[in-house]
Amino acid sequence: MKYLTGFILGIIFTILIMNLTSNIEKPFSFFSDNMTEPSDSVDENQIKIMKDRIILDIQNASLGRYAPSGSMLPILNEKSNGIRVPVYSEKDIKIGDIITFKTKEGLIIHRVIEIGKDDKGWYAITKRDNNPVSDGKIRFSQIKYKTIGVLW
Questions:
Q1: What is the pLDDT along the chain (152 residues), one digit of tens a residue?
Q2: Which end of the chain is more exposed for a tag (fewer CB within 10 A), N or C?
Q3: pTM check: above 0.85
Q4: Closest Cα to residue 93, out of 76, 120, 116, 112?
């Protein structure tokens, strides 16, 4: 009974906090999948919202299109319009970021779950959002883009 009371009090506390900061949209979930969100790569001053258009002032951006694999659902699918930028330094990549990297099979887009260094230098470990198996070590030279936004 004390666990149920604590659970209910937790929900009430969360609702109160959400109401006190009602001008900020917040996702609400009882469950966590331990997924780290991408780093914030677009500053507010780079976004201009007008009556008839939205302008994103982002240098070297391009549109990413995706195969219907389902590996990155619900974030990306074949109908998503990804906004991506080239990466120039290892410092551009953070845990949680979604990156595009080159393999023998072609371009792959997965989420960074770990960053490290070994005797060969910097690496990122990536994986699909819908698969518990990682891709192994991805070297910086393989990384082509970082996804900084998605439009559906």
A1: 655 555 565 656 555 555 555 565 555 444 445 667 888 889 999 999 999 999 999 999 999 988 888 888 888 888 899 999 999 999 999 999 999 999 998 999 999 999 999 999 999 999 999 888 899 999 999 999 999 999 88
A2: N
A3: no
A4: 112
